[in-house]
Amino acid sequence: MMRIVIVGGGLSALRSAENLRKRGYEGELTVVADEPHLPYNRPPLSKEFLWGEATEDELAFGVPAEEADIEWKVGHSVVASNLDEKTLALSNGETLTYDGLVAATGVSSRRLPIPGPQEGRIVLRSLDDAISLKERLKPGARLVCLGAGFIGCEVARTARKVGCEVDIVAIDPVPMVVPLGKEVGAEVQRRHEHAGVRFHMGQSIAEMLGENRVEGVRLDDGTELPADFVLETVGSVPNTDWLSGNDLDLRNGVLTDAYLRCGAKPGVVAVGDVARFANPLFAADPLRIEHWQTAIDTTVFATATLMADLGLTHERPKPVSIMPWFWSDQGTVRMTSYGMLGIADSAEVVEGELNGECAVSYLRDGQPVGILLIGTEIKQRGARFKRQLAKARKEASAV
Ligand SMILES: Cc1cc2nc3c(=O)[nH]c(=O)nc-3n(C[C@H](O)[C@H](O)[C@H](O)COP(=O)(O)OP(=O)(O)OC[C@H]3O[C@@H](n4cnc5c(N)ncnc54)[C@H](O)[C@@H]3O)c2cc1C
């Protein structure tokens, strides 16, 4: 019997498995997942789960194991692969053969080599990380957050909500500068400062202070900040080690073709955070997109490709073309975005005021490439902004 193996145990792995069954795949379906949990929802890890509104059980996606007849090898990682021989080596010594392969291994938190004690340095990517962080978030606890991206700012506001002291240290001029730009980033910083978050921008941590565990940090300019723990949110590293040695382009994720295939041989596709692909709607270079919705959307295209490449359907696969979408809840700062803000070269407020509810259009060479909505009321009108952007992109990509 034919076998498809999905490597990874997150959202894109689960949706890949479900899509394959929906498309009529009846062969063996195995998911190899290194975390000890069945798939769960990550976004609440920096929000509802941390402040206690969502429980561990509520994060679980619910796996239709019996209906979909999926074998879950949970708690084992794939450590190596041979795409010519179609084999995978697992951490438990097992070798798996496959006919079709889905790479759905996501990313890991990037770590910086900083001298000083290691104990008390934490990251936030997995449920286990979130459980450990939650235990530390007590009223009066002192958190230093290294990095001012989405996850850093979300945790900072959650930590303020539970009564922690919070300092954010980041090398950038303003928080989330790459996707949001300087002006919007500065406004978001102002709102977080109003909620009591202290920012130390344009700086990094030169040294962790303390005897055996972190008791503080020294910044580049010599400033010392007390800390009970340091959360490091300085970006991510795609989990591609297991694919090395197969002549794939693994620079910043696994490069795919327009159908999300990787490598020269058919039968291997990539999905979710780990996949780097060109999105013709935005005429951009191949990029990875670390958004929840993209993890889902890519599985729709990739499973169609896989079914066709394995000769299981006569349906022709379609080249991937998606409208990226994300949300970020940072205390009272609620953001929703469509498109690819990060490739813009300018931004302008097109509705409302920057210091209130507003819509900000992001442009590249004068053409809209993204829209950011700040606020909960304007978010209700998201579908209209999304439609307008999609229309503009279709016209621009047809030129
Ligand atoms: C704290 C947090 C908050 C977020 N908030 C938002 C948000 O508000 N909005 C939004 O749009 N997105 C958000 N995201 C991003 C979103 O969760 C991701 O885009 C999504 O989870 C990607 O799914 P994935 O399946 O590609 O990767 P993942 O969910 O990372 O799953 C990959 C899985 O593969 C496993 N794995 C890795 N290597 C191997 C191996 N060799 N063998 C076996 N298994 C392996 C990993 O351990 C992991 O379990 C957030 C992410 C985090 C961490």
From TrEMBL:
Q: Which UniProt keywords apply?
A: FAD, Flavoprotein, Oxidoreductase
Quote the cellular component terms of the Gene Ontology held in the record: cytoplasm
A molecular function (GO) term: oxidoreductase activity, acting on NAD(P)H
| Keyword flag Flavoprotein | yes
Q: Does the keyword Flavoprotein apply?
A: yes
Record-annotated FAD/NAD(P)-binding domain positions: 2-297
User: What cofactors does this protein use?
Assistant: FAD
- InterPro entries assigned: FAD-oxidoreductase/Apoptosis, FAD/NAD-bd_sf, FAD/NAD-binding_dom, FAD/NAD-linked_Rdtase_dimer_sf, Reductase_C
According to the entry, every stretch annotated as the Reductase C-terminal domain falls at: 325-397
* One Pfam family, short name: Reductase_C
PANTHER family, per the entry: APOPTOSIS-INDUCING FACTOR 1, RIESKE DOMAIN-CONTAINING PROTEIN-RELATED
- Protein name from the UniProt record: FAD-dependent oxidoreductase
Organism annotation: Brevibacterium aurantiacum
